[in-house]
Amino acid sequence: MAVRERGGSSLETGAQVITGQLGKTIQRLRKAYNLSLSDLAEQSGVAKSIISQIERNETNPTLATVWRLSQALDMSVERVLASSDDAPFVEKLSRADTPILLSEDGLVRLSIIGWIKTVEWLQYYDMEAAPGGELDSDGHQRGSVECLTVIAGTLEVDVAGQVETVKEGETVRYRCDRRHVIRNRSGAPARAFMVCLLKAAVLE
Hints:
Layout: E1 3-6, H1 21-32, H2 37-44, H3 48-55, H4 63-72, H5 77-82, E2 100-103, E3 108-112, E4 122-129, E5 134-137, E6 145-152, E7 154-159, E8 162-167, E9 171-175, E10 180-183, E11 190-197
Antiparallel strand pairs: 1-2, 2-3, 3-4, 4-11, 5-10, 6-9, 6-11, 7-8, 7-10
Helix pairs in contact: 1-3
Protein name: Transcriptional regulator
InterPro entries: Cro/C1-type_HTH, Cupin_2, Lambda_DNA-bd_dom_sf, RmlC-like_jellyroll, RmlC_Cupin_sf, TransReg_Diox_bact_type
Keywords: DNA-binding, Transcription, Transcription regulation
């Protein structure tokens, strides 16, 4: 993505996502649903032996494995990764604490509202584009998908030459593992919510 960062700390690596709490969390949720290891293995498609190793914190599962387990346990991935035995996970950021990215032309502003611990596989932004603004991005990891929902105004999405006009209330999803450009060709400001699912989050 051809952007420059303004404010905020540098992004942390995805290796910090998996913590020692994960095994306890999976086990606690499994027991709360009265599921045996075999039951959870059948519902998630994850081998019983792998689940057992995860619960004993003997292995670091891939994010795809965590995703399958979270789906089987009816929990979001973020809640599974953030859960602890002691208290609910609550984090609040002020407007001043929210990192901002600007496009090369300075006319497109991305507020990073996603959780920094998931940045290696899940990114989401509040996007504001002034008239004439353009966000030109190189391709992300192969297999990655981006979802753009326009909240106000109209945006144009160009994915490797295929162009879609997206109006207020509309959503467009597209492979973002190739050059893609988001433009505001209108005379009015536009705003959108953008989610990028990188390779690790897209199951083949």
